[in-house]
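Quick one:
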Amino acid sequence: MERISQAKLITAIKTPYRGDNKIDFEAFDRHVEMQIEGGVQGLVLGGTTGEGHLMDWQEHVALIAHAVNLFGDRLSMIGNTGSNNTREALRATEEGFAVGMQASLQVPPYYGKTSQAGLRAHFDRLLNLGPALIYNVPARTGQDLQPDLIRHLAGHRNFLGVKECAGNDRIAIYEKEGIACWSGNDDQAHDSVHLAGSHGLISVASNLAPKTMRHLAENRDEVRNKALLPFFDWLFKEPNPISLNSIMPMLGYCQPVFRLPYLPLDEQDRAMGKTLLEGAPLLDQLPPIELISDERYLILA
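Output:
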């Protein structure tokens, strides 16, 4: 738990696919090595960015096991084993801990929303299984986890903190109360650390620029952060991970394979991303970015 609590930069890691719709573990391993070289201290596996919601649980747990076995000695491994079905979340979380993850990421039940009392019971039961981060992302779940609930959960022995996407004002309040927070918004992450006092960030952008994001997590650099905001805006111009999935094949990091319901950005938006990334003040050395054609993207169900 202490290792995760000390992490400034955790990457919400992308899951790459092969043309046969299987996880591309070779591409995944190369990508994780790049993360380690860039100073990343932990990974969220099978999160929103990693498309855990597009996997069956067998595939999902296999990804966690693979990452733990190869990289668990160098990175903290946080498995997104949450679900809107408490029973499924319990089973997946038990399996995740059985294969070696250090902590789980737990989300509030989405779509089939419940009461505040139901949320408390859901999270309490899951926290009993082992260390967990609670993920508050109202834009995706339709439910903002209220401070009274988080304060209750913070009293549990296995509560690590919150991945908070409800803004830096909320983060500042929690951190003053001793509740650890990691910002889940790349465009707010710099200020979350240096103005709101967050422990760090759980980043999508670090898939592309881990050294730069580690720098922002550890150094107050308002000039560089401001210059990166147009790229951060592009990265989330459509629901994550659409932009990331569109540009990573352009860098040669993975095959251009999408699982529905995600589709690549159109060519104009991909060209915009290429221009923004090439012009961004990165500390990372990127490979050449190729604007690939629509026909090269493979769309699978």
